[in-house]
Description:
This protein is mainly alpha-helical.
Amino acid sequence: xxxxxxxxxxxxxxxxxxxxxxxxxxxxxxxxxxAARELGLDAGTCTRWLLAAGIDPKRRGRRRRAExxxxxxxxxxxxxxxxxxxxxLRTAVDWDQGIVHADNRRVYxxxxxxxxxxxxxxxxxxxxxxxxxxxxxxxxxxxxSLLDRERIRDxxxxxxxxxxxxxxxxxxxxxxSRELHRNRTATGTYEPYAAHRSAAGRRPxxxxxxxxHREKLRDxxxxxxLRRWSPExxxxxxxxxxxxxxxxRVSPESIYQALYVQARGGLRRDVQAALRTGRSRRKxxxxxxxxxxxxxxxxxxxxxxxxxxxDRTVPGHWESQCLCQAARGRWMAGSW
Length: 336
């Protein structure tokens, strides 16, 4: 007699026909999860089948990624390149920014890790300290490198204007102006290595939310929310009521973040229900092509009306035709 087992998840035996059927479906769909779902199989087991057969389970994703970056290198806009390779626009943004998805986490190039398995609050790994690895790493060409900052120092010391420096570095003048203004030393000089260390030190996340450590601002926002003000109203009134106090500034998005993400928001939990919508989380927006139509039945254009209407054989068609002709005649005569 076979011994009874108490395993709540007994091992399932698959037949050779199921494996062959999965391989055939995978060749057609090139997606493990979709193919396994179509046949009612376990995705992990199907992945092991592919690896044992020497087949790359992610070949379609790698091919699509390579095609996307080829299009971007050829100057194709992000939205058009994503549509051409059938890629979600948000995923395309992550690819362009160098964000890696792994184990339900988002790993940013600057060392931030957003772990959805634990909490929505961002955490940092060991790379975020402004040491040599972080200083030497070039995140993206849109960020100023140490060589760029050395050229800014040399050109600025020689009396070159900000616009001329920007033209030499192929940067916006505002980028150069902001760099010189933000990273000057106490003596008023610009040192490239000190500026680079300061920029690397500002890079790590998360930073303390504005509504967490500014008590006066937080109390004002909470008071107005409880009076059913919208975040946009609060943000605009702050500028009018405190024109000279730059500490009393907060964007509508910061208020929404404080309401939706309690772990880093700073507002009391009972203020969550103060929004006019009554929501405690964001409402997902659908794409334009996925939005629901305003009408239940498909709309029929007047140009597509049946030809039987022109015959005027059905009661009602004659009267409507006469009304249309009378209205057209009055409009043409200018007596409308």
